[in-house]
Design brief:
single chain, about 110 residues, mainly beta, seven-stranded mixed β-sheet, about 0% helix
Length: about 110
């Protein structure tokens, strides 16, 4: 199983980024896919989830700003992040079941 996150980077507050999660070696279309994030010195927190049927769930801190979606044909999951804030700065991880990737760094400058 290989999970690869991409799309992170450096952005000014108010900007946008789109993260991608690519999974291989697992039938990810049958799984709930989660995006977590972990800031330095803090616990890893759930940001957003999407079920195999497309139902979504968001942390209160990102509701209205982040959108999770999936492309079952391409076996990709996206996290569209708009109106970014400095407090969104973290390493973002994609989880497929118990498997996760190495993460992608998101840094939001004030």
């Amino acid at each position: 199983v290989q999970i690869v996150e991409s799309g992170g980077g450096l952005v000014q507050a108010g900007g946008s980024l789109r993260l991608s999660c690519a999974a291989s070696g697992v039938a990810s279309m049958f799984y709930v896919i989660d995006w977590y994030r972990q800031a330095p010195g803090k616990e890893r927190d759930l940001v957003a989830s999407i079920s195999s049927g497309g139902s979504t769930n968001y942390a209160d801190s990102v509701k209205g700003r982040f959108t999770i979606s999936r492309d079952k044909v391409k076996n990709l999951v996206y996290l569209q992040m708009n109106s970014l804030k400095p407090e969104d700065t973290a390493v973002y991880y994609c989880y497929v079941g118990q498997n996760r990737g190495q993460g992608t760094q998101v840094t939001v400058l004030s």
